[in-house]
Amino acid sequence: MINPIELGTVVQQTDNIELSPQRREIATGGEEGDKQSFADALSNAINSVDETMKTSDQQVQDFIAGESDNVHDVMISMQRAQMSFEMMVEIRNKAVETYQEISRMQI
């Protein structure tokens, strides 16, 4: 036999739902007390991609100017910058897609 839903427990569960967002922190894998917010982690990831792009651009400029003759390192840095940028774009696309899916949910 199926147990009936008790109204008291449903109301109690809905009272425990937080309606206002709170700043959540995530562990960074370092020390136990070392935590950062999601926004900080996202900002660090974007800055890392930007730094990779700048490093690649600088190596290309050095190669063109004749200061470097190692074409392999230049090509590897360009490929690394391209891959990191493509991964950042895909993560952004997934985040936007998830946001749109959540916003379409009916409450």
UniProtKB/TrEMBL annotation:
Major subcellular location class: other
Keywords: Bacterial flagellum, Cell projection, Cilium, Flagellum
Subcellular location: Bacterial flagellum basal body
Molecular function terms, GO-annotated: cytoskeletal motor activity; structural molecule activity
GO biological process, one term: bacterial-type flagellum-dependent cell motility
Coiled coil (UniProt feature): none
GO CC, alphabetical: bacterial-type flagellum basal body
A Pfam family recorded for this sequence: FliE
InterPro entries (UniProt xref): FliE
Family classification: Belongs to the FliE family.
PANTHER family the record matches: FLAGELLAR HOOK-BASAL BODY COMPLEX PROTEIN FLIE (PTHR34653:SF1), PTHR34653
Protein known as: Flagellar hook-basal body complex protein FliE
Organism expressing this protein natively: Fodinibius roseus
